């Protein structure tokens, strides 16, 4: 059988469109020493400092989390043994779901193998039930949200990113008797800006819409006990379904949804990405449970994260380096050119041992290429100052537009 392999693009879609193949650098994180790590490329190892990890709070290195996982392996082995419906439900799955439901003040929770499968699986069901539901989706929503809505077959309307006026215009034009669902992210994964949750919740109430808020880049890091942006604003009860991940702020892996028991049971019963996959290993669930419990009780990680993010935003601003938003811990330095962005990333790594992955299409639109920097509690403030200093030098060397250039000053 001839598969015509020469016709297949090399790397990802974005890599093919730029004529380059995606290469995955091996990053060897060393327990207890993060953000220090070992990078392996072409058989050569080098020591680096990681500045683009989604382990936002360093919980993937937390000793209590590690010990919980080791104990679970000693007691239960490494795998779950099956899907949740067929022999693969462990006590840690049940305890974790109860903990997450309590964290968000919801009746029930359901955990998935990843944040992607949580969004895809949940929205495929929720947007398609009842069948005449109309979905209103933010234009910058994550691919997993887009895919879930697409797989539901529901009629959908896209509102401009965080544009409340446009959302209201679309809601007002929709038939009053049709069920409505608003899907959005609280903290955007690339822009780092925060959605106007109060205004959106008010619109949902006015037009009788169900709300689905993705708090992937917020849980663990914002709000009381790390419950997210909606909780920080005192609006958690205004959002029907709160979705989150266990692989970012909590440092492990997995995704989840929380909400009314009836909705969660519907997803549990109908979601293909929940039903037809092996459940999380008990050790993963045990580690996630310990991480959630730790961050519900500790403010130290959130405080240090906030201080480092504010410091980096300030220093980059003083250097004239434009950031897409200063709302959150995601510090996205706008380069605006694919080649310059790649070069800046390479220079940081080759000259200074600083690893910041360049972000280009399809992750962001062409012209919005950026360096997505994520300072964490485990970075020293002096490291933050050093990063800002060397990045300022690279910015000048590559003649990348500064904030004043972009505003015509």
TrEMBL record:
Similarity comment: Belongs to the class-II pyridoxal-phosphate-dependent aminotransferase family.
Catalyses which reaction(s): succinyl-CoA + glycine + H(+) = 5-aminolevulinate + CO2 + CoA; 6-carboxyhexanoyl-[ACP] + L-alanine + H(+) = (8S)-8-amino-7-oxononanoate + holo-[ACP] + CO2
Cofactor: pyridoxal 5'-phosphate
A GO MF label: pyridoxal phosphate binding
The protein's name: 5-aminolevulinic acid synthase
Pfam families referenced in this protein's UniProt entry, alphabetically: Aminotran_1_2
Aminotransferase class I/classII large domain location: 50-391
Matches recorded under InterPro entries: 4pyrrol_synth_NH2levulA_synth, Aminotrans_II_pyridoxalP_BS, Aminotransferase_I/II_large, AON_synthase_class-II, PyrdxlP-dep_Trfase, PyrdxlP-dep_Trfase_major, PyrdxlP-dep_Trfase_small
Broadest EC class assigned to this enzyme: transferase
PANTHER family reported in the protein's UniProt record: 2-AMINO-3-KETOBUTYRATE COENZYME A LIGASE, MITOCHONDRIAL, CLASS II AMINOTRANSFERASE/8-AMINO-7-OXONONANOATE SYNTHASE
GO biological processes: protoporphyrinogen IX biosynthetic process
UniProtKB keywords: Acyltransferase, Heme biosynthesis, Pyridoxal phosphate, Transferase
Pathway(s) annotated for this protein in UniProt: Porphyrin-containing compound metabolism; protoporphyrin-IX biosynthesis; 5-aminolevulinate from glycine: step 1/1
């Amino acid at each position: 059988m001839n598969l015509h392999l020469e016709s297949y693009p090399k790397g990802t879609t974005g890599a093919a469109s730029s004529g380059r193949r995606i290469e995955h650098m091996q990053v060897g994180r060393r327990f207890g020493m993060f953000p220090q790590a070992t990078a392996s490329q072409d058989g050569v190892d080098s020591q680096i400092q990681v500045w683009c990890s989604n382990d936002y709070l360093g919980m993937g290195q937390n000793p209590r989390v590690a010990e919980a996982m080791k104990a679970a392996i000693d007691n239960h082995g490494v795998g779950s043994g099956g899907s949740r419906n067929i022999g693969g439900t462990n006590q840690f799955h049940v305890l974790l779901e109860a903990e997450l439901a309590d964290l968000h003040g919801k009746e029930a929770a359901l955990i998935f193998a990843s944040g992607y499968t949580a969004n895809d699986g949940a929205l495929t069901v929720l947007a398609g039930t009842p069948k005449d539901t109309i979905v209103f989706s933010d234009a910058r929503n994550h691919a997993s949200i887009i895919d879930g809505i697409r797989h539901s077959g529901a009629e959908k309307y896209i509102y401009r990113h965080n544009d409340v006026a446009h959302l209201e215009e679309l809601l007002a034009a929709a038939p009053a008797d049709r069920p409505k669902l608003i899907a959005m992210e609280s903290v955007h994964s690339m822009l780092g800006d925060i959605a106007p949750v109060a205004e959106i919740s008010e619109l949902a109430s006015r037009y009788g819409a169900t709300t689905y808020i993705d708090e992937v880049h917020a849980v663990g890091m914002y709000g009381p006990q790390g419950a997210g942006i909606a909780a920080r604003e005192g609006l958690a009860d205004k959002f029907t379904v709160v979705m989150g991940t266990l692989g970012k702020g909590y440092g492990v892996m997995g995704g989840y949804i929380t909400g009314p028991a009836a909705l969660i049971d519907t997803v549990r019963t109908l979601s293909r990405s929940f039903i037809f996959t092996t459940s999380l290993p008990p050790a993963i669930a045990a580690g996630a449970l310990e991480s959630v419990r730790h961050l519900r009780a500790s403010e130290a990680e959130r405080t240090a994260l906030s201080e480092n993010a504010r410091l980096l935003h300030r220093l980059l601003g003083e250097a004239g380096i434009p950031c897409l938003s200063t709302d959150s811990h995601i510090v996205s330095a706008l380069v605006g050119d694919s080649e310059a962005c790649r070069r800046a990333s390479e220079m940081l790594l080759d000259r200074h041992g600083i690893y910041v992955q360049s972000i280009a299409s399809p992750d962001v639109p062409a012209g919005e290429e950026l360096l997505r920097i994520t300072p964490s509690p485990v970075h020293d403030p002096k490291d933050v100052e050093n990063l800002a200093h060397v990045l300022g030098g690279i910015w000048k060397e590559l003649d990348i537009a500064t904030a004043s250039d972009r505003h015509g000053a």
